[in-house]
Design brief:
Enzyme class: hydrolase
EC number: 3.2.1.52
CATH superfamily of the largest domain: Glycoside hydrolase, family 3, N-terminal domain
Family: Belongs to the glycosyl hydrolase 3 family.
Number of strands: 14
Shape: elongated
CATH class of the largest domain: Alpha Beta
Structural class: alpha/beta
Protein name: beta-N-acetylhexosaminidase
Organism: Arenibacter palladensis
Number of helices: 20
Strand order of the largest sheet: 10-14-13-12-11
Length: about 525
């Protein structure tokens, strides 16, 4: 068990350069080569960096969009992660703070680990905040067992732009009250077992049509409009207690005197709005500094790291120029400012390394929790239960579109159709969008979408969707007799949808976003 010295001791043990190193959090990749692992070990030992943020592989990084490198499946990712954490901790003079993006569980980064529903699915759940608490708690327990201290979640962006290419399903929805309440419950669950939490992407990445991994989104709303909506979840979760805030790479002229500087390097937004107006006293972490929206702005190594520090970030996430960045900060920063940042970061580490032994009752089987979440989130978007029940009585054909490793819903309903009355005018369609992100029409084939549109116009269709509900933007979904949202393609969610189709349960969920109807 790694232990960390109290702040009053650490402040004299570490020299100023070591304190600057504690503010750096480079990326660590689970599927790195031995040579790359040793390079990071040297970096940790030489520059005394404060922590690491783990990703699956260099090929999976969103900024590899242009490179199209193939992502290699690693069945032993979790074991590899645990071994790497041990190695990197052993290379460190001072214990490392280990973080990861686990918005819907470790499965976001690591194969063969528990996966929970996306935030948009949780957003559909009504008045069951105890379940959201359990999701945050269970993900935190999974993190703790892996050796991770800090889950960089939840997303509190209000997704009020259906064309958002990067937030979308990662948001609890478009209603500020729903987003806020879900976030607070998730955070409380996370903190209940001693894992650090983080809200992102300040000041709000929801109303953008640009992916900040690749370009700089510009939000032209007034400060009054942002305070009333996008900033509401940040303000309220800060009041309720959150460990850290991640600042996004977002250009919002109304928040920085018309300059439109990316928020991550804007003193007006971090030191002014976040610190002074919203009274946030915890740790501020930058979004990944390798993201093209900011990394391409600075050709001189270390300049971006200095600018991010100078703007008010305490931790520089995915810093790619650690050596040069440390030197720039040493050359330019007020020592008192360094001490203030170090103070916040070290106290966060103290909190992370405090002993915490969750009791056995904290642990809940993933499948059991997912069954509860499936029951509460299933949404009857259009139509009614009698329309659905009449299909079985009248007879129907069954069709599957898209791809999924599990198609238990359509397999069972096909058996029901084969053994029942025949009616070619009734078509039950199970839609499995291959990807959760909207790019390339969620990877649905053109011929699949054409067939779906044709059937909607010529047949009586009931549509069950097992994926991102924004896929409905692609079709005239209101032509269907009924649309039912299962949200996830997990077996638990398909089993629950099957029970609904058979008339055994009712749909309890509410779609937390607006779908733009495409007219026929």
């Amino acid at each position: 068990m790694f232990k960390i010295a109290p702040y009053n001791m650490a402040t004299t043990q570490l020299d100023l350069k070591e304190k600057v190193g504690q503010l750096f959090m480079p990326a660590a990749f689970i599927n790195d080569t031995e040579e790359e692992i040793q390079e990071l070990e040297k970096l940790i030992g030489k520059y005394h960096i404060g922590g690491l943020c783990f990703f699956h592989s260099r090929a999976s990084a969103a900024t590899n969009f242009e490179g199209k490198k193939k992502i290699v499946y690693n069945e032993q990712s979790l074991t590899t992660l645990k071994n790497l954490i041990r190695r990197y901790q052993n290379a460190a003079k001072y214990p490392l703070l280990i973080s990861i993006d686990a918005e819907w569980g470790l499965a976001m980064r690591i194969e063969n680990t528990p996966q929970y529903p996306y935030a948009i699915t949780l957003g559909a759940i009504q008045n069951k905040e105890d379940l959201i608490f359990k999701v945050g708690q269970q993900i935190a327990l999974d993190c703790r067992k892996a050796g991770i201290h800090w889950n960089l979640a939840p997303v509190v962006d209000i997704n009020n732009n259906p064309n958002n290419p990067v937030i979308g399903y990662r948001s609890f929805g478009e209603d500020k009250l729903n987003v806020t309440q879900k976030a607070i419950s998730f955070i409380k669950g996370t903190q209940s077992v001693g894992i650090l939490s983080c809200i992102k992407h300040f000041p709000g990445h929801g109303d953008t049509a640009t992916d900040s991994h690749l370009g700089l989104p510009i939000i032209k709303k007034s400060k009054e409009a942002l305070m009333a909506n996008e900033l509401y979840p940040f303000r309220e979760t800060i009041k309720n207690g959150v460990d850290s805030v991640m600042v996004g790479h977002l250009s919002i002229p109304s928040l920085d005197n018309g300059e439109g500087t990316p928020a991550t390097i804007s003193s007006s937004i971090i030191k002014g709005l976040l610190r002074k107006e919203l009274n946030f006293n915890g740790v501020v972490i930058s979004d990944a500094l390798n993201m093209h929206s900011v990394s391409k702005m600075f050709s001189q190594k270390g300049e971006l790291e200095w600018r991010a520090f100078d703007a008010g970030n305490d931790i520089l996430c995915f810093a790619e120029n650690t050596k040069e960045g440390i030197q720039k900060i040493m050359d330019n920063a007020d020592p008192n400012e360094i001490e203030e940042r170090f103070n916040r970061v070290w106290k966060l580490k103290e909190q992370a390394f405090a002993s915490h032994s969750p009791s056995a009752k904290d642990q809940q089987e993933t499948s059991a929790l997912n069954k509860q979440l499936a029951t509460e989130s299933l949404t009857l978007l259009t139509g009614n239960d009698s329309i659905v029940s009449n299909f079985t009585r009248e007879g129907f054909n069954c069709l599957s579109l898209g791809e999924s490793t599990d198609k238990s819903f359509v397999e069972t309903t096909s058996e029901i159709a084969d053994n029942g009355p025949k009616n070619r005018d009734n078509v039950l369609i199970a839609l499995y969008p291959p990807k959760v992100k909207p790019q390339n029409n969620f990877d649905l084939k053109t011929e699949e979408l054409d067939l779906l549109r044709q059937l909607l116009n010529t047949k009586r269709v009931i549509l069950y969707v097992f994926g991102n509900p924004y896929v409905l933007n692609l079709i005239n979904y209101k032509a269907a007799k009924a649309v039912v949202l299962g949200y996830q393609n997990f077996k638990e969610f398909q089993d629950n949808a099957l029970a609904h189709f058979k008339g055994e349960i009712i749909a309890k969920g509410t779609l937390p976003v607006t779908i733009n109807l495409i007219e026929p």
